[in-house]
UniProtKB/TrEMBL annotation, chain A:
Protein's UniProt name: Multiple sugar transport system substrate-binding protein
InterPro entries in UniProt: SBP, TAT_signal
Natural source organism: Kribbella italica
GO molecular function (one): maltose binding
Keyword check for Signal: yes
Domain of life: Bacteria
Any one GO cellular component localisation term in the record: ATP-binding cassette (ABC) transporter complex, substrate-binding subunit-containing
Any single GO BP term: maltose transport
PANTHER family: MALTOSE-BINDING PERIPLASMIC PROTEIN, MALTOSE_MALTODEXTRIN-BINDING PERIPLASMIC PROTEIN
Record keywords, A-Z: Signal, Sugar transport, Transport
Any Pfam family the entry gives: SBP_bac_8
Record family assignment: Belongs to the bacterial solute-binding protein 1 family.
UniProtKB/TrEMBL annotation, chain B:
Protein name: Multiple sugar transport system permease protein
Domain ABC transmembrane type-1: 72-284
Biological processes per GO annotation: transmembrane transport
Protein's UniProt keywords contain Disulfide bond: no
Family annotation (SUPFAM superfamilies): MetI-like
Localization: Cell membrane
Length: 442, 293
């Protein structure tokens, strides 16, 4: 998945205009999706029934699309009685289209969802619980990092089968590091080392870490820093925002001070931080693991990737995760349900292929295989697995997080003091959390 | 005609009426119904809340009021800043392109060309052009010693950029309408004005402008509405920023309706926006109607 697609998810480029709001949702009043079908072995024993066709929706429009298509083709060849038809669309369209399609009975049999959308879609009856698949796959908590595992659960049931984890990583330009007298084989790993490296770069007239005010990946960096400083985004039961407490303020201050201290230009535009690393103007960028393939394609770029430096004292990094989910079928179809489970099972076990697209496999067994370790860049970021954080599995949590995006934007643009920006955003987000509790009856 | 009975006009109207009912009236009424509920089409319960969604928009403590009015403000600023340019620039262009000179058709096509592009194309293109550090615009201005400007991340430049992009993008459309209007002004009026000794400016002021009045009313009205519905440019170029200063009302409505799935609240916002636009359109009409002396 490339950054533009990911970003559009947040932007939510939906139907154009009020007309869409008025006209778009007519069908849904009937929306009582079908009851969960009996599930049996969760796809472990394969599918013997009559020929079925499965629609499979996802948003892999970037460099990862071809990797998934290859897996689908392979599955289709090996399973003559199941034909998986993959449909790829922009994530933003996808997240608005899927619920509508499900409620009108035209939803796909299998779909991919980001971990932070699972709870919302579970609460909205868009997807089915699939504890049986997890059982059939013999997926256990031990196979995954705790957070990855728990993030797929909502209301005591499992809704997502983790396919991958995509953490934030520390990308660096080796040429610039050498120019500044730094050892490109030893990227800075602590707050002091990082500060020293930035100063050394500054001494050579290089702004070493551009602070972007945009979600990708400024907000993700600030979230990582917040956890590093020992903070949390929300309180224990996610009823209140706590990102405006001390760790959050420290995190946002550290990040926006990059501008103040001359390590970053002002007004960095979207993606300019990353482009600057590729152009040899910026030394460091914290970007998602999907960036590996972007950097690989840039000829002549000497780069490396490492786990995020530990600035705040606790190792931590932001991560996302793609999860398989099974949208509800309006008319339950046992054959389709079984075949869909077989497919999920199949791809889940092939996640090494998927990792080549620039992801960390969710399964421990794949992660620890020699084949995966041969993908050195991905493997370097996989070492962060136990330090990763996801948003809590609370329906509509993204609505509240959108307020954090505004706070980071204002602070990094030096418009608002970090503490105030965070507090204002927290007040707005608390209202949204409260409204969501009412809406989803939590 | 009388022999065909009373049903005839209605039969002629029927096809349009059916379309209108299904695609405009029906959804509009349904939206009004929605706005009175806490509506999520996926959730079984859609509790009736009366006017609460509307009241919330006027209650500063609610979750929807602040984003909505910020959106309305951004929409208002953009509309006020863009409409004069979107009316004046095409008019000037149309007058120029109405003259006879070699290559006229070519230039007409050139100025209309951007309008053909999708918003995604112009959005992506201008994100590169306007980039603070790598953008060609800042590079060009740098030649004259202008320091780097955050076209997408600083105010008021973000609005300047959005207005400029929109003018560049949509000028062609209004210019074409003006051109059509210009060709409807009888040549005799210009001849008569010339005989009376009018100069170019006087001809423009006393023949062209009055002749274009109905066209201008039309253009001002549709441009107002189009500007008030601005969505794609801000979403793609400034992403609603810096802060939420360029997050337009439509972006807020889309977010509330399709990302947060609060269709009821979004519908209420839509109706309030529609009401405001109706009032603005009426005022425009009132101000610009033909005055009979």
């Amino acid at each position: 998945m490339n950054t533009i697609n990911r970003r559009l998810v947040l932007g939510g480029i939906g139907a154009l205009g009020a007309a869409g709001i008025l006209a778009g949702c007519g069908e849904g009043s009937a929306g009582k999706p079908g009851a969960a079908p009996a599930t049996g072995d969760g796809g472990a024993k394969g599918y013997e029934g009559p020929n079925v066709e499965l629609d499979f929706w996802n948003g892999f429009t970037g460099g990862d699309g071809p990797f998934m298509r290859k897996l689908v083709d392979q599955f289709n060849t090996e399973h003559p009685n199941v034909k998986v038809k993959m449909t790829v669309m922009q994530w933003s369209d996808y997240y608005t289209k899927l619920p509508t399609a499900v409620s009108s009975g035209r939803g796909p049999a299998v779909a991919i969802m980001h971990v932070d959308s699972l709870a919302t879609n579970a609460a909205r009856n868009v997807i089915e619980p699939l504890d049986d698949v997890a059982k059939a796959l013999e997926l256990k908590q031990e196979d995954f990092a705790d957070v990855v595992w728990k993030a797929g659960e909502y209301d005591g049931k499992r809704y997502g089968i983790p396919l991958d984890v995509h953490p934030l990583g520390f990308f660096y330009n080796k040429t610039l590091m050498t120019q500044a007298g730094l050892d490109p084989a030893k990227p800075p790993a602590t707050a002091d080392e990082y500060a020293a490296a930035l100063d050394a770069l500054k001494g050579k007239g290089i702004q070493g870490h551009w602070a972007t005010p945009f979600t990708f990946t400024g907000v993700l960096s600030v979230q990582a820093l917040l956890w590093q400083y020992g903070g949390q985004l929300f309180n224990e039961d996610s009823s209140k925002t706590v990102w405006h407490e001390e760790p959050g303020v420290k995190a946002l201050t550290w990040f926006s001070d990059l501008v103040k201290n001359g390590h970053s230009p002002k007004n960095v535009a979207q993606d300019a931080d990353n482009i600057a690393v590729m152009n040899g103007k910026n030394a460091f960028v914290w970007n998602g693991i999907w960036n590996i393939n972007t950097f690989k394609e840039k000829k002549g770029l000497e780069w490396g990737v490492a786990p995020l430096p530990n600035i705040g004292g606790t190792k931590a990094a932001w991560a996302g995760s793609h999860q398989f989910c099974l949208p509800k079928l309006k008319t339950p179809d046992q054959n389709k349900s079984t075949a869909a489970r077989v497919f999920v099972n199949y791809v889940s076990q092939k996640s090494l292929e998927w990792a080549k697209g620039g992801q960390v496999p969710a399964r421990k067994q794949v992660r620890e295989s020699a084949d995966f370790k041969a993908l050195t860049d991905q493997a370097a970021l996989a070492t962060q697995i136990d330090d990763l954080h996801f948003p809590p599995p609370v329906p509509g949590i993204g609505d509240a997080l959108a307020e954090l995006n505004k706070a980071v934007n204002e602070a990094v643009l030096q418009k608002t003091d970090p503490a105030k920006a965070l507090a204002d955003a927290a007040a707005r987000a608390d209202k949204i959390l409260e409204a969501n509790r009412k809406k989803y009856g939590a | 005609m009388r022999g065909h009975g009373r049903a005839t006009p209605y039969l002629f109207l029927a096809p349009y009426l059916v379309l209108f009912t299904v695609f405009v009236l029906g959804p509009a009424v349904f939206g009004l119904w929605m706005s009175l509920h806490d509506w999520d089409f996926q959730l079984p319960g859609k509790p009736f809340v009366g006017l609460q969604n509307y009241k919330d928009l006027f209650d500063p403590l609610s979750a929807t009021a602040e984003p909505f009015w910020h959106g309305m403000r951004a929409t208002g600023i953009f509309t006020i800043a863009s409409v004069p340019f979107l009316v004046a620039v095409p008019l000037g262009l149309a007058v120029l392109l109405n003259r006879h000179f070699p290559g006229r058709t070519f230039f007409r096509a050139v100025y209309f060309a951007p309008y053909v592009l999708g918003v995604a194309v112009i959005g992506l293109m201008f994100r590169y052009i306007l980039d603070t550090t790598f953008g060609i615009l800042n590079a060009f201005l740098g030649i004259f010693g202008v320091p780097e400007i955050g076209w997408t991340t600083e105010q008021p430049y973000a609005f300047v950029a959005l207005v400029a992009v929109t003018v560049w993008w949509t000028t062609g459309f209004n210019a074409i309408i003006y051109l059509a209007g210009l060709q409807d002004i009888p040549a005799e009026q210009y001849e008569a004005a010339e005989l009376d000794g009018a100069n170019g400016w006087q001809k423009f002021r006393n023949v062209t402008l009055p002749g274009l009045r109905p066209v201008t009313v039309f253009i001002v009205t549709i441009t107002l509405l189009a500007s008030a519905n601005m969505f794609g440019q801000a979403l793609l170029i400034t992403q609603g920023g810096p802060g939420d200063t360029t997050t337009t009302a439509l972006m807020v409505i889309t977010d509330v309706g399709f990302s947060q799935f609060r269709m009821g609240q979004a519908a209420a916002m839509s109706y309030l926006l529609a009401l405001c636009l109706a009032v603005v359109a009426l005022i425009t009409f009132g101000l610009m109607r033909e005055r009979k002396s």
